[in-house]
Write the structure tokens for this entry.
Amino acid sequence: VGGGKYLLTYLLLKHAHAPRPRGKGMRRTLLVVPADVFGKLVDSDVPRARRIVGFDVPVHALGRLPPPRRMDLCRSGLAGVYATTYSLIQQAKTGAAELEAISPQFVVADEAHCLANFRRNPAFRKRLWWVMQKCQAGAAWLSGTMDRRSFLDAAPLMARALRERAPVPLDQVTLERGA
């Protein structure tokens, strides 16, 4: 989780899990990060967020577990933030099953420019879109480097996160003509 998005990430997750006036807050959220920052997330970012912003939501670090234990945790139904990596989601054998078992109610994709693979990897796109369709409250896509990527990479992310309020064409033909 980058320094500029650090507080925003944990405040989003904390807010997502907060009790609501007419019921409970969300039980399961998914935090997806690049593999190279996963260790920092677990070892320093989460403990720091607990001190600075009172982040008190349980974090289930899937990225450090072998596949059988990871799947057991995904199926546990425990409330909290399930932290994983883009590379684990892309794994053909386990990625889709783990996402389905977690069935998150909200997704935070940090370093969302990593999702540029949407257009080039149909299996990954299908998996993540499936999760997004299941989410009750949508998603937050966070990135400080989206502007360096193709507009075609960023547009589907904006459309999914903002839905009808997205500042981009929602149909693929118009999007490709304007890019």
